[in-house]
Amino acid sequence: MQELEQGRSLWDDALSRLRKNKLAMISLCYLVVLIIVALITPWIAPYSYEAQDLILGATPPSSEHWLGTDSLGRDQLTRVLYGSRISLAVGFTATSVALLIGVLWGTVAGFLGGRVDAFMMRVVDILYALPFAIFIILLTVVFGRSLILLFLAIGAVEWLTMARIIRGQVLTLRHQEFVEAAVSMGLNRWQIIRRHLIPNALGPIIVYTTLTIPSVILLESFLSFLGLGIQPPQSSWGSLISSGVETMEEYPWLLIYPGLALSITLFSLNFLGDGLRDALDPRVSKD
Amino acid sequence: MAILEVKNLSVSFYTRDGETQAVQDVSFSLEAGEILGIVGESGSGKSVTCYSMLGLVPMPPGKIVNGQALYHGQDLLTMDEKSLRDIRGKKISMIFQDPMTSLNPYMRIGKQIMEAVQIHEKVSKKEARERAISALREVGIVDAEKRVDAYPHEFSGGMRQRVMIAMALATEPEILIADEPTTALDVTIQKQILDLLKSIQAKRDLTIIFITHDLAVIKSLANHVVVMQKGKIMEEGEAQQVFNQPQHDYTKKLLAAIPTTAKSFPSKVTESTPVLLDVHNLHTTFTKYSGIFFKKIEQEVKAVNDISLSIKQGEILGLVGESGSGKSTFGRSIIRLIESQSGDVLLNGVDLTKLNAVELKTARRDFQMIFQDPYASLNPRMTVFDTLAEPLLTHKLATRQDVGHQVNQLMDDVGLERKHLRKYPHEFSGGQRQRIAIARALALKPKLIIADEPVSALDVTIQAQVLKLLLELTDKHNLTMLFISHDLSVVRFLCDRVAVMQHGVLVELDETETLFNNPQHSYTQKLLSAIPALN
Questions:
Q1: What H or E segment, with its residue span, contains residue B196?
Q2: Is B377 close to A282, i.e. CB distance below 8 A?
Q3: Fold match between domain B2-91+175-257 and domain B275-289+299-530
């Protein structure tokens, strides 16, 4: 007996399409390995992140120190590995926060329209106008310094652009006939937002997400520079790069390796993002 | 002597899905002063044929595989880009389908016409302006001296198409290629534009290629007709010949697909049939505000102005009117997609306008809508299965486990194969998509269906199939339908009674045949006389 055709969700289809995109799959593998390495760093790092060797000082890469040492004689490989923990955590957490608030805020504003929309978008405008550094300093003064707070603070700022982009998308989608059809079928607002509006705005959401992660990672180094983020001997890619820049001419390896780590990660994120965007759009191509 | 001669033209498009032969071995010739009609459905290659002569087909993916297009003996296809530019827009001009998008909204229309002239001729600004004004006057723009400085948005659709024609004529071309120039226009405006083209043609002895999907339009206009299907010429001949004694099966099929007759099977509605929908004094007004927090009323448009009508169980009521007449707003107001200001809408005695949000959600099971554009009314990211299952699951008429059975039933009902359930909307043709949309509307077994121009985006042969399907389904499920359309012949074919709307007001309502044979209101008479007739 022939089985009844069952519906498969957009995500099932997307996954099978994504598997056929080699570049995206390689990027995905790289990111998975990176995350695993970041998680087990304390057990695999060749040195302690605090260990200094002032007599050794800055040395170029060698068999003992694969990526060289910095001017205090700290092992660069260890610092890059520990840095990945902070950078990835900041990158993903803050972006998720931004994504969650931004998408919901933007969709609700765009879909409801009228005064609700005007009010919600003015809130966004006011937060935009607030100088970012002062906002963070205020938060730190009130709540004290903590990593969680740093994540939340960055996320709380990055969602603004996301909300604006999504609102624009939803405004054009809202008057499409398939949304009207959904209303006339008796779907409630939340069902329409979840099933009809957000899936059709996924393209820009994904692209903007892959752009947000790197900017968040760099933002962390700026905050660390202000003394609000993490402090040496702890490290992050952002802080390693900004200190590497200062000694670029004497000790180039201090800039090159954290820079490479960051760039490769960003490349993979972009490839994966592009792959996801294409995979989630059934119109792009038939396989 | 032929002014333009196309010989064995073949054009292909190369995409990752392989080669598509858009035009295959097409030959025809055009005598000076004649009007050639090229007819075909979407995808027949009628536009590509003309675009490729003027180098307007994007290459790649397009490629001219073979053939010649001789304009006064010169081959347009092998000509260099510069010489072609001198001919294109100067000797051979074009008018496009959509007058809303083919004019630059940021430029005064006079400037746009002057630009067309100045590109090709060395004339002074003053002279170009004179030419623009006289071209506008020629196409019937009143007060051309003043209107020349207006922006496109200050003109209506029909007037914009006149401006487009003026622009094409300003360079005094020999050949005018008109690509579906009246398709986006209302029927009364269409008649005006066709009359205008005819009179200009006679006055200037212009040669015209008129591309259209509508046989009736071409009948009143063309001397010579070419019928195309899937890139090939099916039939070619004198207009009289093709219309009166079509030789090819496809031409016969096209002619037969045009609804010309009255409704074929008798209505089941009698005196005693109960009324399903009763609308009393419905008003829907759109108010334009300025300011967001402190609103100030700027302008009020009465889109639906005091309309009362009733539809009986099992009846199909046609609602006709031109764009802006408020017919769509009326349909949407009934089912509360748009909120009305006052009036009652009684469905089986329940006043829909008084329902609160929760009651309305439940009540929506009883009335569904079919939309005009099957490309926009289906969510592109949902499979057909999900689209059809959604209303059933929302109203808890099925569970995730047993919904498949009902979905399959719906596919059978609208004549689609079950194996297509896993596909997405973009993988279907327009007609198939409209079938999916109809299936979705039927899923909840509604009592009333509001169909808003459900066949106007479809080709004529597909339109005939969908109309037949609608008739079968209303019969099978005992549906009641409000059928909104601008196409009077479709309405005549389908509906039991017809209502005519103009500027938000109901001007006439009568039995279909009575209304068609003996229209009372002057507006109805005007509408009926504007239909391009086949016989």
A1: helix B187-204
A2: no
A3: yes
Q: How many domains does chain A have?
A: 1
Cβ within 8 Å, pair A185-B440:
yes
| Domain over B275-289+299-530 is classified CATH 3.20.20.450 | no
Q: B365–A188: do the CB atoms touch at under 8 Å?
A: no
CB contact under 8 A, B422 and A8: yes
pLDDT band at A227 (very low <50, low <70, confident <90, very high): low
At A4 the pLDDT is 42
Q: Which structure tokens are listed for B9?
A: 């033209």
B427 CB within 8 Å of a chain A CB: yes
Residues of chain B in contact with residue A285, where contact means CB-CB under 8 angstroms, are: 16
Output the CA–CA distances (angstroms, integers) from residue B296 to A117, B35, B194, B287, B293, in the order listed.
18, 54, 43, 10, 9
Which one of B16, B364, B419 has the shortest CB-CB distance to A185?
Answer: B364
Chain segment A42-83, per-residue pLDDT in tens: 888 777 777 777 777 777 777 777 777 777 778 888 888 888
Interchain contact, B382 vs A118, CB within 8 Å: no
Using CB atoms within 10 Å of the CB of residue A131, give its burial: 0 to 12 exposed, 13 to 18 middle, 19+ buried. exposed
Whether complex ipTM tops 0.85: no
CATH architecture observed for domain B2-91+175-257: 3-Layer(aba) Sandwich (3.40)
Could you tell me if A1 lies within 8 Å of chain B, comparing CB atoms? no
- CB-CB neighbors (< 8 A) of B369 in chain A: 180-181, 184
Residue B330 has pLDDT above 90, yes or no: yes
Indicate if the pLDDT at residue A2 is higher than 50: no
Q: Which of B381, B394, B418 sits opposite A186 (nearest CB)?
A: B394
CB contact under 8 A, B371 and A181: yes
Pick from A186, A188, A282: which is nearest to B380 by CB?
A282
Domain with A104 in it? 11-56+64-280
In a domain, A160, yes or no: yes
Close Cβ partners of B197 (under 8 Å, ≥ 6 residues apart): B165, B178, B181, B208, B210, B221
Cβ pair A283:B365 closer than 8 A: no
| Cβ atoms of residues B225 and B35 within 8 Å | no
Instruction: Tell if the CB–CB gap between B390 and A4 is shorter than 8 Å.
Output: no
CA distance B306 to B293: 30
Say what the pLDDT of residue B253 is: 86
Take residue B23 and report the two structure tokens written for it: 């035009």
| Nearest chain B residue to A203, by CA | B381
Distance CA A207, CA B72 (A): 53
What are the pLDDT digits (tens) for B361-410? 889 999 999 998 888 899 988 889 999 999 999 998 888 888 889 999 99
Q: From CA A46, how far away is CA A233, in angstroms rounded?
A: 16
pLDDT tier at B296, thresholds 50, 70, 90: low
Give the distance from residue A142's alpha carbon to the nearest chain B alpha carbon, in angstroms: 34
Domain membership of residue A5 (yes or no) is: no
pLDDT at A6: 47
**Cβ–Cβ gap A180/B390 under 8 Å:** no
Find the CB nearest A191 among B293, B368, B394.
Answer: B394
Provide the residue ranges of all domains of chain B, joining segments of one domain with +: 2-91+175-257, 103-172, 275-289+299-530
